[in-house]
Amino acid sequence: MTIELNPQQKHAAEFEDRHALVLAGAGTGKTRTIIARAAYLIGRGVSTHRLLLLTFTRRAAKEMIRRLTQMIGEADSRIMAGTFHHFCLYTMRRMPKYFGVENATVIDRDDQVQLMKLIRGHYHKSTQQLPRAAELVNLCSYARNTNQATADYLEQHTEYDPDIMEVIVKIAQDFTHRKQLNNYLDYDDILFLFAKKLHEDPVLRDRIRGFYDHILVDEMQDTNPLQWLILDGMRDPAKLFCVGDDAQSIYAFRGADFKNVHAFKERVPDSVVLRLEENYRSTQGILDLSNWLLRQSSIPYDKELQAHRRTLSKPKLIDFDNEFDEARWIAQDLIERHETGADWKDHMIITRTGWGARAVESLMVENNIPYRFIGGVSLLQAAHVKDLLCLIRAAASHLDELAWTRYLTMWPRIGDVTATRMIEAMKPEPSIDQALDVLRARLKDRTQIIEGVKGVLDYWKEPSRIIQEAAHFLKPLMMKRYDNWDLRRHDFELLGRLAGRHRSIMAFIETYTLDPVTATVVERLEQDDVVTLTTAHSAKGTESPVCYIIRVEPGVYPYVKSMGIFEQEEEERRILYVAMTRAQDELIMTRTYQRGMLYSAAGRFGLQENNYFMEDLDDDLVDIEDAGYGPDRFSDYDVIRPWNRI
DNA sequence: GAAGCGTTATACTAT
DNA sequence: ATAACGCTTC
User: Fold this and answer.
1) What is the structure's pLDDT at A645?
2) Strand partners of residue A51
3) Distance in angstroms (rounded) separating the CA atoms of residues A118 and A113
4) Which of these, A645, A644, A380, A375, lies nearest to A492 by C-alpha position?
5) How many other C-beta atoms lie within 10 A of the C-beta of residue A511?
6) Most exposed of A248, A281, A421, A538 (fewest Cβ within 10 Å)?
7) Distance, angstroms, CA A253 to C1' B13?
C-alpha cells in the first residue's frame, strides 16, 4: 500500500542527502509526510532500526507507527518512536557505563512539588513571601529546559526582589541535590543529563551518533533549547528531518523556543527548508477565520492557509448568558446530531483550561453522552492510586523518601515528623531488608506497617498481582480516608489490568509516569464511539469533523494571566489558532457574557486591556448568533470540578 | 513536641 | 480536592 502525496509532500518525503526543515502549516499533511518519508527510506533499503522518530506525545508516536504498519507491514516494530524524554531515558538505561541511571525512579510533577515543599519549608521560616512550591518547580524547570543558570534566568525574566532571588537559587541547588540523594530523575533531568553527557564525552557522542541514519522530528516548533542540543549532538552522519509550524508554537511556557525553527538554516550547514502549503483538512471558511486571526498579530507569520476542499462552511459564534446555557446547548446539539445518524466520535470539544469545561462535563454526564477527557488529571495522580503506587515504590527502594513519607503517614499516629525520622534512620542501610529491620525496631508492635511492604515484595515478579495485594492490604486504611471508596476501588481493577501488560511493576509505573493516561469513567469501559473533550494543548496534532470551542470570551482568549505580556499574549493567539484549525467540516465557537470569575479576575489583576481576540469580527467570516436562554439555573446542576473527575 | 482536626482559600497550558 | 494554617488533643 502506498500513500498519495501532492508534489510538495512527495518532494519532502523523498528528499536525499541533506538535513531538512519542513515548514508545514496546519492540516497540510505533516503526519502523512513523515510516515511517507519513513516508508520511502525503508523502501530504499534503510534498516528500520536506523530510524529514529521523535514525536511530541506517545499518543502521536503510536498513531504514526500504526499508520506505518498499515503501509509496510510489521517490520516497523523496530523503529524507535517516542518522545524526547522516552528516547533519552531508553538510551541512558541501555548504556549504564556512561549514564548510571539504572536504579533511578522517574518522578512526575506532583512528586517534584512534594519534594520542593520539603525544601521550601526549610527556607520559609526565615524568608517571607517565597513563591509557592509549584511556582518554584516551574522556575527551576524553565531554567533547566532553556539551559540557563537559575540566577541568570531569574534576573533576566522575573521581577523578584534580589534577596528572594538569592534564596530561590539556593532552593534550586538544594532541589537538585535532594533529587540526587533520592536517586530521582524528573522530566527535566532526563533531557539535561542526556544532553550534558552527549556534549561532554566525545566517545559517547560518537557511539550515539552511530546509532541512527535518519532522525525524524515532529512538532519542531515546540522543542526547547535542551532538545535542540540533543538533536545537534546527534546529527551527522545522521540526517535531520524536522517538521514544524511556527504559527502552532504553544509551549513557550515550558521553554519551547521557535528559534529552533527560525534559525535552523544558520545552525545546520548544508540544510534546506521545504514548505507544505495546501490544507487538506478544513473548509475555506474555517481557514479564512484562522488566517484572519493570525493577521491581527503584529508578528509576521507569513501564512495564508489555502483549502484544497471546495466547500465554505462559515464558522459560527454563539452567545449565551452563562456557562450552563452554553453547556446545555452543546449537549442538545450533540444529541440531535447523534439522533440523525452522526457518530459521537466525530465531535471534539476544545477548552482552554481543564476546569473551563466543568459545566460541559456536568451536562454530558446528565445526558448520558459518552465522552473522554484528554489532558486532565491522570489516573496515576488520583489520591488513592498514588497511595497504592507509593507502597509499591517504598518496597522497591528504602531510599525513596517521597513514597515512604506518603505510605507511613497513611497510618494513624504517624505524621510528617515521625515519618521523616524513620526515613532518616533507614537511609544508611545497604538493602531494603536491613532497612525494614531498622524500621521494625522503631515500630515495636505495629508490624502491620512492615507486613504491607513484605506482601508487595512477595509477588514482585507479577505486576498485576502486586496491585491486587496492595489494594487488598490498603483497603481498611483507604476506607477510612476516602468516603467514596466504592467508586475508587474500581480504578485498581483497571490498574491491575494495565500493569499486567508490563514486564515488571517498576517498568509499568515508569511508563505511565512519562506518559500519563487520563481516564474518565467512559474510557475505563474502553468504548470507542465517544465525544472527545480536550484542552487546546492536547488537541494539537488531532482533527475532528465537528469542533466546538467553548468559552471563546474575554479573559480566556487571551487568558487573563498573559495580559500585558506581549509574547504570552501572542502565544494565546496561537492556542486559539490551533483550536480553530482542528476543525474539518464545522467550527462552532461558543461564549458566555456573564462576568464570570475569569473576567473579574482581570479586574483583580488591575488589567483593563481591550485585547480580546474576537473583537471587530467581520460578518463575512463568522455567523454570530445570540442564544440567550433566559434566567440562569446554576443550582440545577452538580458541577464537576477538575479534581473530582476521577 | 507531635498528631490530628476544622476552617479557609484556592484556579492554565504539560513531557 | 487539597494545601495551608491555627488550634486542640495525645
Assistant:
1) 41
2) A214
3) 9
4) A380
5) 17
6) A421
7) 8
Average pLDDT over every residue of A241-248: 94
Q: Are A593 and A321 in contact (CB under 8 A)?
A: yes
Q: pLDDT value at position A479?
A: 83
Protein residue with the closest CA to the C1' atom of nucleotide C4? A132
| Residues A415/A409, Cβ–Cβ less than 8 Å | yes
Q: Residue A474 CA to C10 C1' — how many Å?
A: 25
Q: Determine the straight-line distance between the first and last CA of chain A, rounded to whole angstroms.
A: 42
* A120 pLDDT above the threshold of 90: no
Q: In angstroms, how far is C2 C1' from A643 CA? A: 9
For CA atoms A587, A593, A596, A599, the dihedral sign is: positive
The CA–C1' separation of A380 and B6, in angstroms, is 29
CA–CA gap between residue A616 and residue A571 (Å, rounded): 20
Set of cell numbers at residue A480: 477510612
| pLDDT for the residue numbered A589 | 95
Residue A597: predicted pLDDT: 41
Residues in contact with strand B, defined as Cβ under 7 Å from any of its atoms: A 56-58, 83-86, 108-109, 138, 141, 187, 250-251, 253-254, 352-355, 375-376, 409, 412-419, 514-516, 535, 537-538, 559, 561-562, 575, 597, 642
Question: Closest nucleotide (CA of A484 to C1')?
Answer: C1
